[in-house]
Each structure stands twice: as structure tokens, then as C-alpha cells.
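Is this the right way to post C-alpha cells for a design question? Let me know if I should format differently. Anyway, here goes:
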């Protein structure tokens, strides 16, 4: 029988728990897609419908490069937006390109019975053992939580490291050590060891640094290549970056009720995908007196486009600047950096003048769609 070599598209650092899941749970070889580069994007764009959102193009580029690297089984996830249909389309495009691979589309099992899920999982490895998967799954879930906690700590401190590159070095070795972990005990040991190492890194943080919250679309927020390394650019300017959106907060601890209650003054009905989280987190940043919010989305993302007028209302009500960044496959770094610089200068000046936060008085005099763009130097 041919060796099963499974792959899954990139999303931040989550290829590490994916490796653990497939290797120790499904007992198959895991092929991580090569790091995303311009080539990945160019391949993905060349064979995708032009107006499809950017995550589709990135995923397709990952699939093609991972097939070239030897993968013969591809897994695509489902989602709560168009992502749900992407698997079928990816599969068809790859077939049309002549690739003969097995394609597992998890969107098929989203609303289905456990038996359908079992059938789909069996497709990955017909000889898989449910017992092995049940044993490794809690380890993988905890690993994702630990990665998210570590990266949250990094975002808040990397901009202040005294020796450049210190956090990156420890982070790379943390992920590398996680790849061979397959028990909770080992996982806890690795996590504790690395948290100690991260906390030992010398940082020089001012008493009241600039704080910016990142909100927006799932993939574009979490995959650094797709947002031109936005978080790193902010850190370079000595900004504390706050980003709630990650896999553990949205998949394992999603506070649905709380989000509905918090956003009641701004929206009546759920708006799809990450829209409600975006509004909730923007409100949270505003209430906490952050210096600014950056809204990140992919070109063509309907739920996040719909969110913009709501963010403009929040911006007005809480007197907090919002920068709107839209990413596709054609963005030059120059335009992005210019807008970021302008935003940085503005929030820095506001902070120096002590104008960054006024508590809301009433929800009057709001921005409405005809005012789009007024409060941001963005596209
Ligand atoms: S949330 Fe938006 S960008 Fe992301 S897959 Fe859905 S439609 Fe596309």
C-alpha cells in the first residue's frame, strides 16, 4: 500500500499541532506545506477565480506546493462563510490541473451525524484507530491553547526586547520541541520550560506604551504572510499588540452569549463568520482605552465588509481611531507601510497630547456608511 502523506493548509503556527495529530493520531506521514512565499501566492492566484477571497488563493497555493513536496492526501476544513464551499472548488481545480490526490473535505461533516464524521476520518487512513485519536486529541487541543498563550505573550512583549530576535529564536525552538510531543505530561513540561525562557528575555517596556488591538477576518488576521507581517511591523514601532482571535478562543472557548450581550447596542442579528467577534473585540479595545484598532480583512470578504459601518460607530462613540486594511494578492509593501506609518504618527501624537480616550457620552452623532473612510487613512 502507498504511504499516506497528509497535508493541511498553513495557518500561523498551527501546522505543529496538525503534525502531532496526523502522526500520532492517524498514524500517517504529515507533510507541512513549504513556508508561504510569493510563489505560493502566485500559484494560488493563477488557478483561482479572480474575485474569490484571498484565503482561497493561499490555500490552493499551499495544496499545489505540498503535492510537489510529496503529499497525496489533502484535508480542507469547513467554515461559517464561503469557506464551506471552498473544499469542493479546490478539489475540482486540482483535478483539472491533473493532480491525482485524495481530497478530504471536512465541510461535508459540519452539520452531519457522527457516523459521517467517522466515515470521512476513515478516508484519511482506513486503518486508523479511534482509541489512538481519542488519546491524542486532548493533547492537540491543549497544545493549540499553549501555542496561543505563548504567542499572546510574545505579541505583548516582542516590541521591547533588548536583543533583537530573542523571542523569535525561543519561539522557533518551542515549536520544534512540540513536534515530537505526544502526551499531556510532556506537553506541560515543554510549555512550562518555554514560558520560563520567554519570561527571562530582557525587555524594556515603558510604563504606558502604545496599545493597538487587531480585529478582523480569521485567516488574514492569523496568517502573518497574508497581512504582510502586520503584528511584527507594529512591534518594531514599540507597540503592544492585542489580538484575541485565535483557534482556541474561537473553537474551544467561544463566548457566544457574552458576545451577543456585549454587542447588543450595535447589532441586532449575527452577521456571519468572524463579524461578531470583530465588533465585540473592537468594543473591548475601545472601552479599555486602547490607542487604536486595526481592522484586517481579505478583499471580497462580505462579513468583514459589513462590519465597517459598525466599527465607524464605535470609533465615533469612543473616540478611538480605526485603521482599515484590506489585503489581496497584489498589495505592495510600500502602500501598506505608508498607511501604517501615518496611523502610527497619529496615535502617537494623540497619546502625547493626552487625547486618546474620552468616555462615551451617548450613542448620538454616529458615523453612517456615507462617512466611510473619514476616520482612517486606509483603502
Ligand atoms: S471570512 Fe471572509 S475572507 Fe474568510 S473565507 Fe470567509 S468570506 Fe473569505
Amino acid at each position: 500500500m502507498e504511504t499516506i502523506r497528509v497535508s493541511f493548509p498553513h495557518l500561523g503556527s498551527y501546522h505543529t499541532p496538525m503534525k502531532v495529530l496526523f502522526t500520532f493520531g492517524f498514524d500517517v506521514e504529515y507533510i507541512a506545506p513549504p513556508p508561504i512565499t510569493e510563489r505560493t501566492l502566485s500559484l494560488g492566484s493563477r488557478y483561482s477565480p479572480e474575485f474569490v477571497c484571498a484565503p482561497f488563493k493561499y490555500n490552493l497555493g499551499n495544496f499545489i506546493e505540498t503535492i510537489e513536496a510529496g503529499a497525496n492526501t489533502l484535508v480542507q476544513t469547513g467554515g461559517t462563510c464561503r469557506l464551506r464551499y471552498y473544499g469542493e472548488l479546490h478539489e475540482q481545480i486540482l483535478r483539472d490541473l491533473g493532480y491525482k490526490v485524495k481530497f478530504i473535505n471536512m465541510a461535508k461533516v459540519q452539520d452531519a451525524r457522527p457516523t459521517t464524521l467517522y466515515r470521512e476520518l476513515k478516508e484519511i487512513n482506513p486503518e486508523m484507530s479511534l482509541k489512538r485519536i481519542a488519546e491524542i486529541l486532548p493533547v492537540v487541543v491543549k497544545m493549540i491553547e499553549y501555542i496561543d498563550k505563548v504567542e499572546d505573550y510574545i505579541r505583548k512583549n516582542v516590541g521591547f526586547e533588548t536583543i533583537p530576535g530573542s523571542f523569535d529564536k525561543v519561539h522557533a525552538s518551542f515549536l520544534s520541541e512540540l513536534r515530537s510531543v505526544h502526551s499531556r505530561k510532556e506537553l506541560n513540561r515543554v510549555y512550562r520550560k518555554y514560558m520560563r525562557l520567554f519570561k527571562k528575555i530582557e525587555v524594556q517596556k515603558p510604563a504606558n506604551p502604545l496599545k493597538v488591538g487587531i480585529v478582523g477576518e480569521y485567516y488574514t488576521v492569523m496568517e502573518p504572510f497574508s497581512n504582510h507581517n502586520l503584528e511584527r511591523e507594529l512591534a518594531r514601532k514599540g507597540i503592544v499588540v492585542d489580538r484575541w482571535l485565535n483557534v482556541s478562543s474561537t473553537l474551544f472557548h467561544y463566548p457566544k452569549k457574552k458576545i451577543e450581550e456585549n454587542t447588543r447596542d450595535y447589532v441586532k442579528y449575527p452577521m456571519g463568520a468572524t463579524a461578531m467577534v470583530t465588533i465585540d473585540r473592537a468594543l473591548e479595545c475601545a472601552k479599555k482605552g486602547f490607542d487604536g484598532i486595526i481592522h484586517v480583512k481579505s478583499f471580497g470578504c462580505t462579513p468583514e465588509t459589513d462590519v465597517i459601518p459598525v466599527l465607524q460607530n464605535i470609533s465615533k462613540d469612543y473616540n478611538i481611531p480605526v485603521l482599515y486594511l484590506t489585503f489581496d494578492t497584489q498589495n505592495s509593501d510600500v502602500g501598506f507601510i505608508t498607511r501604517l506609518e501615518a496611523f502610527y504618527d497619529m496615535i502617537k501624537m494623540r497619546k502625547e497630547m493626552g487625547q486618546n480616550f474620552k468616555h462615551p457620552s451617548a450613542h448620538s452623532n454616529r458615523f453612517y456608511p456615507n462617512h466611510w473612510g473619514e476616520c482612517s487613512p486606509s483603502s
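Format looks fine. Someone answered above. Worth noting: The chain has three domains: 5-128, 136-205, 208-379. The longest strand covers residues 210-216.
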